[in-house]
Amino acid sequence: MSKKITLILAIFALYVGCIYADTATTDTANLTVQISNIRSTKGTIRVALFNSEKDYRKSGGDGRNAFKKINSKIGDDDTISVVFKDIPNGTYAIKLFQDEDGSGAIETDWLGRPKEDFGFSNNISAKSGEPDFDQVKFTFDQSHKKQKITMQKALVSR
Amino acid sequence: MNGQHSVIFDDAIETPKTKLSVERVLPTWLNGDLVRNGPGLFNFPGVKLNHWFDGMAVIHRFSFQDNQVYYQSKFLQSRAYLSVANEHKIAYGEFATSPKQSLISHIYDLLKGVLTDNNNVNIVKFGRYYLAMTETDNHVLIDTETLSVVKPHIYDDKIKFIINLAHPIVEDDGKSLYNLGMKFGSRSKYVLYQTNIETNTRKVIVEIPAKRPSYIHTFAKTENFFILYENPLKVNPLNMFLSKKPFIENYIWSDDPVNFIIVDKTGKIVMQFTHEQFFCFHVVNAYENENRIYLDLIVYPNSDIIDAFYLKPRVNLESKNLAPSLQRFVLNLVDGSCNSYKLDVPSIEFPYINVAYARKSYNFIYAVSSKNNDFQLDTLIKINLSNTSTNVWQQDGYFPGEPVFVAKPDTALEDEGVIISVIADFKNRQSFLLILDAHSFNEIARIKLPHLLPLGLHGSFY
Question: Angle at CA A71, nearest 5°, toward A70 and A77?
Fold first, then answer.
């Protein structure tokens, strides 16, 4: 008898799991980030995707706390595209930088000004400080699956 | 303000009194408060600040008592800060950022002294308060416990300046405070004055006419003389009134040499010297010996350094003009000659000495320096002036703030004490207090802070 109940429960769980998986599939998609104005082929482009304001704010110069991260090679073209796969619908923000020296974190001068090119979602310009989450956040869903980001020039030279 | 940022200028995080973890044994005599000031808030919605010196002031205090250390910080609640924080607008002219206003209201503000009270440069003990200062005549008094603004510091006199320096010379355990104000108008003048803390009044020592006032950040004093140096960076006061440019952008690098003005204690101008051009922010020390004044300044070839501190620099940061050097000026009070020479030591800024040796012959300078002898200040240095030997502390990725020397009580040695510096690690978004033995320059302790602190500018230990 107990084997029967176990079997029924297992089938039920499998059924629920299938429903859940199906739902998850329909609510996720691939997010493509097109990055342009890459001025040199040095290093890689590190792209950090955030799904909360708190994580965005505390992400530091190496994109820690990011929901997903991609480290992409740079080709001969001044534009590359990276794809975050199976991203649930929701609100996100992106920050990225060109890791020329392979240190894993954006290089700054002694005042904290970036020495490597960088960019933000919504193409928000960082003129006097890193943009607020509200400025760089975007909605990701079936009809908004692409972000185009133009690299901004480092504020100080290396 | 959003707290921690990863690029450009980081915003400070206001921090209640927090006990820090001290894992090493500190000198038993190291008791007191290190209080620091500096621009610490840059990011406000809809507001664009242009320059490092435009950042809103943040006061930091590090309290040392019996091997325990506490940290707290407070955003200085100035009118300027409240305007950018609450109304998202710049209400007062900052160092390199102007408010949006009509020419008439700009002129009115200058005439009435309605200038910024964003006192983000320096902080000193002043009676029962701290006095937070910037380069306007709107200094504020700060509660030493809460770090909150108590009130604007308004003197009981009728003197009013456009400019009032943020580097007063403090003597007699804080009882005497000398400073330099500037009046702009058809008859612009420098006004050297002494503050009487008890009566809250200022006694004018001398008024010196200045057709084109210089940008002056500090001045010097020996036992018997005051020394003003007029940088070639000068302003036509009329332009200051008629132009809505940010404050510092009204100043133009002139063809004039540097003019030293020597004033005795009675206010008499006893001598003036000229010297080929340089630009200076900070005096290190000055003293007299056998009718000569020895004046140590940190000099730049020109004022490009100001352009380098824009959030988006307006000058090539590789330029050699940005490397500060230590220069000694010897002003002969008998024959009127002025000789100078650069000391053969690396670039330095944010100098600090044992204050007991201010206005005296001295041997040791502590400062922030540069590993590559350029603009990137990434090293702490101790300079022995007797032989120009140096000790350094440097670790890649760590950027030190002004090193404050704290003397061991009752010591007879100039360098017996400790150096305290706030070190910024931008990559790991972390700062720590570094305690060095001032004599050996060996590390005594690192005390981790709760988060990354902006580098800040100046402070003192009380």
Answer: 110
Chain center to CA of A109:
25
β strands within B111-268, DSSP E: 122-126, 129-133, 140-143, 149-152, 163-164, 169-171, 176-183, 189-196, 201-209, 220-221, 225-230, 233-235, 251-253, 258-264
Token pair for residue B421?
Answer: 């510096």
CB interface of A with B, residues 73-132, below 8 Å: 95, 97, 103, 105-106, 108-114, 118, 126-130, 132
Q: How far is A21 from chain B (nearest CA, A)?
A: 37
Residues of A in contact with B46 (CB under 8 A): none
Question: What pairs with residue B51 in β-bridges?
Answer: B310
Q: Are B338 and B330 in contact (CB under 8 A)?
A: yes
How far is residue B390's CA from residue B232's CA, in Å, rounded to a whole number?
A: 31
Name the closest residue on chain B to residue A95, using Cα atoms: B6
Residue B376 touches partner A, C-beta closer than 8 Å: yes
Q: Tens of pLDDT along B405-420?
A: 999 999 999 999 999 9
Q: What is the Cα–Cα distance from B242 to B110, expressed in whole angstroms?
A: 10
Q: How far apart are CA A29 and CA A88, in angstroms?
A: 7
Find where tokens 């032989």 sit: B387
Rounded to whole angstroms, the Cα distance separating B182 from B193 reads: 11
Chain A closest-CA separation from residue B17 CA (Å): 21
- pLDDT band for position A24 (cuts 50, 70, 90): very low
What's the start-to-end Cα distance of chain B, in Å?
30
**Tokens standing for residue B452:** 């990354």
- CB-count exposure of residue B253 (10 Å: 0-12, 13-18, 19+): middle
Residues β-bridged to residue B189: B183, B209
Which structure tokens are listed for B354? Answer: 């044992």
**Cβ contact, residue pair A129, B9, below 8 Å:** yes
Smallest CA–CA separation between A73 and chain B, in Å? 22
Looking at this predicted complex, what is its ipTM?
Answer: 0.72
Cα separation, B11 vs B39, whole angstroms: 9
- Strand locations in B66-116 (E): 68-75
In which residue ranges of chain B is pLDDT below 70? 1-9
Name the average pLDDT for chain A: 84
Q: Does A143 touch chain B (CB under 8 A)?
A: no
